[in-house]
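[step 3/7] fold_predict: job queued, chain A
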Amino acid sequence: MHLSKKCSVFKVVLSALLLVALLQLIYLSFLSKFHGKQQRYRYSELFGGSASKAKAAPPEKNARKERLRYSLSTGGIFDNSGQYRIYKNLIKSDFTANLKPGSQDAPNVLSLATHTSLNNLHHLESLLERWQNPLSVAIFAHDQDVKFATALAYALSFFCPRIQALVDFHLVCLSGEMASFPEQDREHFVGLEDCPSVFKRLENHRDKSKNYAMNGNISYPNNLLRNVARGGVDSAYVLVIDIDMMPSSDLHPKFVAMIIAREPTSDEVFVLPAFEIRHDRKMPATKQELVQLYQVGEVRPFYEELCPRCQAPTNYSQWVNSHVRGSVPLEVSYTLTWTDPWEPFYIGPRAVPLYDEGFKQYGFNRISQTCELHVAGYRFSVLNSAFVVHRGFKIQGEFHAKKDEENKRNRVLFRSFKEGLKTKYPSSTRRC
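[step 4/7] structure written:
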């Protein structure tokens, strides 16, 4: 009798456990179907789908989608060499889309322009968090990455309010490649449901290639990309940096205040001393924070190990020792004459000479442009508290295999470029 009672209790417990397990399976199945349905809706909202679902999306989302379709339908334009296809303003920010031509209301004084391949696009999140103002991004993509870059840039502008408000995307690919609307590639984009999920997807492309080592032995057209990004801004001044660099905090409002208070000049660029910081360190926001890290060796001049002469004319000791404490106005600390081989990062008028697009890959791509600024008569004024910082120390062993070969080729090109400047500026007495 006692044994029979035990068996009955065991059966009841076993039945209850089986029932709980069955209910869990039903619940998980429901969640899976619901999540799948939600994913299908999000994908449809992003890239297309049935007319009813498209109509369910907010009007501004549909307008964004149609603008992308139109940008792609143009087929882009070729660069001067005919080697690259450019989709300028592939995706416009709300700031640019709502800008009225010729409007004098709240003029845009300063924009930031940058360039990247798909494997470094994840840096956009922290860059925009620091900058928080109009930003123009030129993306270079090749082969399958053309499709990914189109879809992920669109997803960023769709799901991330700050990107939607402030970032313009431009796409550059080889002339034989074309970007297309990504509605047929659902399997690649399942899971894109909010801003963090898009940046998580970008992490999958992170550092797939080392520096300029593109798949398929393709040259990275850095100067073309800089020009495309620069051409996408509608501001009086522009700062051009690489996407893995960070400007000092409050640079935008401080620079605007400085420009409003000064007499306007068209032959002056404003130098931001460039540094690099150890990978595991937090980016400094102010000069005081940067100097503290500099004094203990956690921050050093940009390219100090690879080419110390390339940044030495900045005169780091003078800049670091001219302490700026607290909230003081941004102003010119000292003015320098360009000397070879200086390649500073600077804020310049939108009308400064373009970068020479013959320079690709590694070597002489920025120095050629600052050399031209010098010959054209520009002054280089170093700002007292503004700066840019590169993520990580640049060291010899981390570069791609063909770096030295590319540098040698571009050195020959630079000699020819300098000779061309004599013809371009015949009345200038300055030389590089």
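[step 5/7] annotate
The chain is about 40% helix and 15% strand.
The two ends are 106 Å apart (CA to CA).
exit 0
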